[in-house]
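Sharing a chain and its predicted structure for anyone who wants a worked example. Both blocks are below, sequence first, tokens second.
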Amino acid sequence: MGSSANSDTNFGRRTSKTLLSVLNKRADIDPTLQVSQNSWLAFAERCIDEARASQQAGDAETAYVRYMMACNIFSKKFRKLREGSPVLKEPAYGKLRKDISSWVVDELEKLHKELENKVYVEPEHRDSLEMTSEQLDRLESRFSQMYPEDPMDIAQGAAQSPMQASGGSASSGTRMLAERQSRFDEIDSQVQQNDATEPKLQPGVAIVTQPHASRRVAMAVSPTLPSIDETADSELSATTCTPHELHELIEQSRTNPHNRPSILLLDVRPPQEFQRGRINHPYAVNIDPQTLGAKCSSSDVAALIGSEEQRTWFRGLDGFDVVVYVSRAMHSFSDTGSWERAPLEVLNSAVYHCEYKRPLRRPPVFLIGGFEAWVGEVGPERCVW
């Protein structure tokens, strides 16, 4: 590996990128997503509302991204609609067109002038494997400058005295490396001892973490727990479960609260539907599918959750044993004709595929048939209305 000389890899430093080029990329949308036109209209309206709020709060960058995202939706999804298309008669379309032409473009021009001369500054921390590799490049370069001796030769001689390892005249760098090698051996030995005392996962035993617990505890789990299908979906690596399997799992968590798997439901339905009825389970987070844009991170999703309590649960989803996706009535992620698929794909990417900081313990579980199947198979009495 060599030292990276690209200025774009420096943490917290000015780069050759302009800020506007980065913001324009963030505001891009994927017009091929299988989402209804009404959903696109609702999302564009929400983008404008968020942009206006960000602008009033002095956050020019977020305001620019949201305004630009609304304009991209209008341009890529609605500008080329043929005359007579039903969506052209929708009040939401008329409002979006009027807003963009009458004042949104003007606000974008103001923000453009404010941001056009700014240079993009890399954040101090970025959760990407590429940046980790670049950090290692720089560290190795610094290491080779500080300690020009061959580290492998020194490591092989660490069992000898520092003087013997360097042929009788140890430099300060050689002695330091030998001491560090010895310290690393001590740490490794301690880790192995700790691993030996960790509770091992045996049949009928699970490592269970309560949502707000500070440590993991080994608990025996009843062998009668439903066996959730472990066959990963080819596209999304999401397992599946039937309403009856989920019901048994939830009942297990209720009847034996000190010996239970913790379950988090991510209910991806419009808020009005969630408020009218939901699965009766204390840890249920409602995520409005219309808020899930083409590119979202888990932190973006958390910021869009209305309830503070639900937001807290979502931010701690890596502490739950099982995370379950609940749709309205979707039966499979391979159902390309369902409007529900695109928001679920975005959510799955945010919380599972692209979440490196707080990875889930296991792939998320997809409830076959969604809330409607739950009502039909388990019964309305197992819901909160």
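Comments welcome. The chain is about 45% helix and 10% strand.
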